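Predict structure. Chain length: 309.
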Amino acid sequence: MKFSYRLIFSLGLMLFAFGNVTAQTLSKEQMVFLTPQWTGERFEDGRPKVADDVLERMKNVTIEEAWGVLRNEGYHNQFESGWQPLHDDVPVVGRALTVQYMPNRPDVSDQIKKKGKADGRIGNTNSWPIDMLVEGDVYVADAFGKIVNGTLIGDNLGNSIYAKSKNGVVFNASSRDMEGLSEIEGFNAFVRGWDPSFLTEVMLLSINTPIRMGAATVLPGDIVLAKKEGVMFIPSHLAEQVVVTSEVVRLRDLFGISRLKEGKYTPGQIDNKWTEEIEKDFSQWLRSHIDELPVPKEQVKELLKKRMW
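Prediction complete.
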């Protein structure tokens, strides 16, 4: 009997899917397979672990800067808008812990609960991902945009999430207890809506697997950059590039504005490709202002090392 490559591929997908349903997560090997361009540290389960200092610097990156870098690298499906954030002025930045919810189907749901119990999981299924959170994580969940009876958390779970992750959440679903959640200092929730109902007829399917968040594809360990405009899901291997590019843009803008105010250059000179003379002036300006720039001093030093003028 002759097997086509298409049939072999289909069988592989079926086995892959079955493994996810029974284990509710990717194996370390599968995680590494899906994130081959990440070469840094990983969590024990294989999820990419972008460095804490990159996360901290990411907070100053604008949505437009991140979008531009990803687009130049060929990533056109990493942004999603249309959220109703708890706070407009509290960004959420961290490593994605992804969760997939689906409309409830009793036979599948019962199997998942049995497997979870056998694995030692405690409580309702929507608390399982919270138990896995570590500091710097962002709980990212797709619950098919459900609002009424799609409230993944209230203020009790919100407090638990913040205690473990020191971070917020991004839900393609709703939340409840807006007033209580708003009292958690530093916490933010990007959700599709707010509703007083309880979570019903929703089942947990998988944790730390690829998910869809509206128009975006999200993998475990992607860096979440959530601000008022919307949410960027940045592939782990591009996170540092996004940060460094943002910092360079920020510094060049500051230099350009400073020199324009001094009248040293014309707008035409600053708005076009800089001459070698302006580039050298920029390098000297960085050295002279290194203690007052809005970029960590060590990062400015690294930038100066790489400059060739």
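Summary: Residues 53 and 240 are 10 Å apart (CA to CA).
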